[in-house]
Design a protein that fits this description.
It contains 3 helices and 3 strands; from the N terminus they run αααβββ. The protein has about 110 residues and is an alpha+beta fold. β2 and β3 form a beta hairpin. This is DUF6788 domain-containing protein.
């Protein structure tokens, strides 16, 4: 392995590159898993069905707690071989998380 950081793809925005550079190795692995799952989902054409239903992506989830900002996303953390959903958002240069619920075995 090289001692130099990898060169980002030219078509990746500077904002995304800077954001990723601020993440820990664990957060980058979560992003990588999410990106792979999202790419598979979109490749199946599932996003076409959602877009035809209107612009529901701007709506707040019903279960968003009062102390979690609207910009939060749901991430999965693995702790001691157990997986949990967490709300996660950025405040300045730090990433904040709040426990949501365990991931069901069917997910």
């Amino acid at each position: 392995m090289s001692d130099k950081p990898p060169t980002p793809p030219a078509d990746l925005s500077t904002e995304i590159v800077n954001t990723l550079n601020g993440y820990s190795p664990e957060q980058l692995r979560y992003v990588a898993r999410y990106a792979e799952a999202l790419a598979s989902y979109k490749a199946r054409g599932a996003d076409v069905d959602e877009e035809s239903d209107g612009d529901e992506s701007d709506e707040q989830p019903d279960d968003l707690p009062d102390d979690v900002p609207s910009k939060a996303t749901i991430t999965i953390k693995e702790i001691n071989d157990n997986r949990y959903y967490y709300w996660q958002w950025r405040e300045g240069s730090s990433v904040k998380s709040k426990y949501k619920e365990p991931v069901s075995p069917d997910d």
